[in-house]
């Protein structure tokens, strides 16, 4: 799907926002079609990797050292992405393409190829996130089980001003609000479950409104060429 998005937006130079919305709707319908036969079937949950000697520590042991492999991969990805973007030549090229693709092209870099690779890497990470939902968070498949979390992930990038470590912090803050809503329901508070389910999205909207009101935060680390098409002969 990310390769299709890259082809439509980078090769055919279609509008990125409209293309993203169209592929989102396509993905919902396509996943529902492919996954119809899996609805209601119990899945096999990924095993937890308990680290001997560390998982037994009170509180911090289960919190940090008793998760499945995808959780540890996500932590490693945050570190590696930050390292590559800000400490390597490849990261410098990626950021140059994001900040001024005309200058990057003038220096001899293939802007379209760099964007293809970045989009495909982002798609692969999104695939891992989706796999986590059906293999660990809820070990089964149901239609539209993402429940809009992809849009939250997109908003978290803005919230974190494009810094990997801040994205991770924002993601866990969102997760905390989500779990608190479930906990409040479990202990019997007389609050509409629809309101509790909407809390993470409301918190995200409020955070984005606050950030949007601060021009310094809005521009901090934001790629200047974001959303802008590139055609080499223009």
Offer a few descriptive terms.
single chain; 234 residues; mainly alpha; 11 helices; 2 strands; globular
Q: What does this entry look like structurally?
A:
With 234 residues, the protein is mainly alpha-helical. The protein contains eleven helices and two strands, in the order ααβαβαααααααα.
Question: What's this model, at a glance?
Answer:
The chain is mostly helical and 234 residues long. The protein is 67% helix and 2% strand. It has a domain at 147-223.
SSE layout:
Elements: H1 2-11, H2 16-34, E1 49-50, H3 60-65, E2 66-67, H4 69-87, H5 89-99, H6 101-106, H7 111-137, H8 149-159, H9 164-186, H10 193-212, H11 215-219
Antiparallel strand pairs: 1-2
Order of adjacent strands in the largest pleated sheet: 1-2
Beta-strand segment tally: 2
| Structure classification | mainly alpha
Cα end-to-end separation: 28 Å
- State the order of secondary-structure elements, H for helix, E for strand: HHEHEHHHHHHHH
């Amino acid at each position: 799907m990310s390769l299709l998005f890259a082809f439509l937006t980078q090769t055919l130079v279609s509008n990125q926002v409209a293309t993203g919305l169209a592929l989102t709707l396509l993905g919902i319908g396509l996943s529902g079609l492919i996954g119809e036969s899996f609805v209601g079937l119990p899945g096999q949950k990924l095993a937890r990797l308990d680290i001997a000697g560390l998982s037994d520590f009170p509180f911090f042991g289960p919190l940090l050292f008793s998760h499945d492999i995808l959780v540890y991969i996500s932590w490693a990805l945050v570190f590696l992405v930050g390292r590559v973007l800000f400490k390597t030549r490849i990261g410098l090229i990626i950021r140059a393409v994001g900040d001024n693709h005309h200058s990057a092209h003038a220096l001899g870099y293939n802007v379209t190829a760099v964007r293809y690779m970045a989009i495909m890497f982002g798609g692969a990470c999104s695939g891992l996130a989706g796999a986590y939902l059906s293999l660990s968070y809820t070990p089964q498949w149901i239609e539209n089980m993402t429940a809009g979390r992809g849009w939250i992930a997109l908003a978290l990038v803005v919230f974190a001003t494009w810094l990997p470590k801040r994205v991770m912090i924002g993601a866990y803050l969102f997760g905390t609000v989500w779990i608190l809503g479930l906990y409040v329901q479990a202990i019997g508070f007389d609050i509409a479950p629809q309101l509790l389910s909407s809390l993470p999205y409301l918190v995200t909207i409020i955070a984005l409104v606050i950030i949007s009101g601060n021009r310094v935060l809005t521009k901090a680390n934001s790629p200047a060429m974001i959303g802008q098409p590139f055609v080499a002969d223009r």
